[in-house]
Specification:
single chain; 89 residues; alpha+beta; GMP Synthetase, Chain A, domain 3; 3-stranded mixed β-sheet; 3 helices; globular
Length: 89
Amino acid sequence: MGPGIAIREYLEYVVVRLITPKQEAGVSHVEKAGRHFFLIRLHPDDAGRVIGRNGRTIAGIRSLAQASAEKHGLRVTVDLEDPLAGCGR
């Protein structure tokens, strides 16, 4: 298993345990120009749980993903998909 896949599985593991129902979350992974981009998909009601108070939860998730990536010489970006995108806001 490559490091990019391992980071994706870590993100899925953490995010799925923070939310309910579990099937409403996912992580997509794209590699462009030597950088790995991870986009976390959530239901709008679950965004607050993953972001956390003052963004601390998502900051911790990003820090751990970046630490793992640095160990393997990778550059990563972890973002949340706008949960209201496509909802006509």
